[in-house]
Predict the structure.
Amino acid sequence: MNPHRRSPFVLAATVLVYFFLYAPIVVLILYSFNASRANVSFEGFVRGYSERVVMDGSMVVSSPCGPFHWFCELGKNTEVIGAASNTLTIAFIATLVSTIIGTMVAIAMQRYEFRMKPFSQLSLYIPIVIPEIVMGIGILTLFSQLFGVLNNALHLTGDSRLTMGLGTVIVSHIAFMVPFVTLVVQARLQGFDKSFEEAAMDLGANEWITFRRVTFPMILPGVLSGALLAFTLSLDDFVITFFTNGPGSTTLPIYVYGLLRRIITPQVNALSTVWITLVFIIVLILQVVQNREAKQH
Amino acid sequence: MLKRLRENKSAQGTLLALPTTLWMVALLIIPLILTLIISFGKRSPDGNVIYTFTLDNYVRLSGYSTDCENGAAACFDPLYVQILWRSLTLAFNTTVLVIALAYPLAYFIARAHPKRRNTFLFLVLIPLWTNFVIRVYAWMMLLRTQGAINIVLGWIAGLLHIPFVPLEMLYTPGAVLVGMVYEFLPFMILPIYTSLEKIDNSLYEAAADLGANSIRTLLRVTLPLSMPGVVAGTILVFIPVMGTFIVSDILGGRQVILIGNLIQRQFLDARDPTFGSAASLILMIMTLVVTYFYTRKFGFGEEIVAA
């Protein structure tokens, strides 16, 4: 029997599901070239090139960028650039911190026994089994009550008042990312034998050298994929950011959501297209690197 | 001091776990306790929280009221119970649909040539990595009255010379269901794939040798062995669907209100954090109860890590 034999039903279902996954994305990208400013229906591409943007009613007839009109508009949009820079700042800092402390706690869980362990374990499970909104409004309540008390106690007024902002978003992102980093690193730690570390210790290496020369190199792939997961979770996050951001800390998902509730021009599509393209390229590079590494081993 | 630490394994473990544990206490445990305390509180006229002990918020959620229009002593307004029920059934329907769509695809990838599996998985991940909000927006573009689906349907109707009235699809419960299915489909495909991929080929061969046909093999070999993946996927889909408010907000308009929307509005528009906190706790309890009974029945393993 051929193990790779496929039933026609499975094949048809597969094609349908892939179509279901990709059709919306294709439409989204197509509309980012829409000549219609209202963007309700597709009115064809922005065709012509011209010195200045030429409009006819709500239609863009020609533009300096031609079909890429909305991408040029996007580049001029300072709000988008600010949101993009916030999103990346938050993701980088939160990933760095959550990867470090997440790896530490994963090692503790896997290799050590201590009194606090069941409690630490529980606190790492909770974020996975409760909806994000529960955590989001909890953190919002914490910060609003805390800042209220502190502002009163310290007599802070005006600009010096404590408010939600980049800081609160970063701190909250770390809290929801750490459990995922820990899960990934722990899975990697489970995968290899303790005897490697014991052998190093028997040969006279102390804990630190054992960690640096044996444990860390072995768990590094796990740490990196944990960091990658954390980074994407942070980039993608809407709910936690929604409840913890403040003036000046808008991220791209929050910005897009704000637009969806107001007027939607093809700029939103152009933004989505840029995002999708970037993600596609990054994931593709990672895949190629991973495959190459897998072949080497 | 350092020497003592070097010998004390338990202290080392505590130290390694300390930063994360403190972080989780500050940003998870304390917020949850605060939510509990506030849910028993009252809203002051200016939208602040008055700390007291009253069950008013929970009574209000149940729909029971003594402040009735027709002068009756007590009456019942099912509004919030309906919202809870709607969220629960939507999460259930979404999960069932997602399993139905994810299973054949996961099976296809798991049975594909090992060299091609990564490419097929990669194709599942790409939509997942485009932003959550962007994916909802894509469905808004598809479902609008002048959107892509109606354009295609109109074109087909034109070819067949059938009169066509554009369908009103956006801002309906169906739109929210489709949006949810789309958002969470990859979270089911990955764990099911992980458990299917582990099934040894010899098991299929043995089943065939013993005379089982393909349906029997599916029911007696494939399905039971892939249950851990289905369970893990269900947890990854069911819990977030219960709490998501963007999908219903954008694709459901004001028509489809879920518990997530209710909570969000209490914190931002209606400004009653005490009632929002009570609703949030009820949501948490509902998901925990469902997850507990579900995993106790089936159990779940490492598949949840795979996703």
About this structure: Residues 78-306 of chain B form a domain with the MetI-like fold fold (CATH 1.10.3720.10).
